[in-house]
Amino acid sequence: MLPPVRFLTLPTPAVGATRCLCRRLCVRSPLNPWWQAGFAFFDAGSRIAGVIPAVLKRGAVDADRAAADVVRDICRRHARSFYFASFFLPRRKRLAAYSVYAFCRLLDDATDNNPGGELRGIEGFESALARVYEGDFDDCGDDATAGVMRAFARAVREYDIPRRYFEDLAAGCRMDLSVRTYDTWPQLENYCYHVAGVVGLIMSCIFGPIDEATKPRAIAMGNAMQLTNILRDIGEDLLRGRVYIPREDLERFCLAPADLAAGKVDDRFRGLMSHEIERARALFRTGAEGLCRLTDDGSRLTASAMAVIYAGILRAIERQDYDVFSRRARLSLLQKFARIPAARRLARRREGQPIPDVF
Prior knowledge:
Number of strands: 0
Oligomer: single chain
Radius of gyration: 27 Å
Strand content: under 5%
Order of helices and strands: HHHHHHHHHHHHHHHH
């Protein structure tokens, strides 16, 4: 369990009662002038003491607002699909989700924007994580980072998010430093869990309630989104020297990494992409089975919107005839809005009912 947050508080009601007693003594005492002078001094001090909690409270509120602005801006700039879907969430949950994303973004930035220092970046993330879970996050760098840490610490306490989920996320980033290719789907699935499936677990803690039956569904949904990312970004990953498509799948369609590097879209590549897209859709359908267990306060609709919007990327890949080399498959803002009715159908589904055809 996380240690409780401790704030400096003063017994304001007791100060008020003591001040009242002082005034009565000043009037009734035979040594009135002296009592008046002494208690006037105490009365002035007690008034100052009574103001201190209010000042501290205003300072804490201002810091919380600044932290909220920081994490919201990070999410708006770097996670546009989630930011779009998040407006269905209650404000408190929305801020918690932004806070978690912003903290995880620190890990992405530490590895993506730090050539040659990726391992130090991951270690820095793990150190920051330890400080948050141990309650020591006041000395955490620049103002933006401090805001992220403050908001993240509040979120993990409020929603009791296990520390090991974020440790698994860091382990996934370590995998990217040493593993460039995958031989089988189970190997790639393990990677997907560490970089995305675990994010499904984290968000389920916020969207709640999460139980043992819900966890595999949350992982499947995260894995579906990561596989979608992999299919969309094949060309970009090749430039980084990474081929995430399992070797066994490439061989099944008579392809090699060199064929992908050539950027040629032929029948073999179309067959491969069709196979992987169906795998991603199966994961989306498995994950969708758990959505009906989420709280119906906007959380269920947000998760459903994220699912159908991400699945829309698969349709975009198909519309451009599987060409993921010359342009990036994406959804416009209008196309995202157009998928909200599908998200509502998915969110209204009850347990035991068939999954709507929205993927």
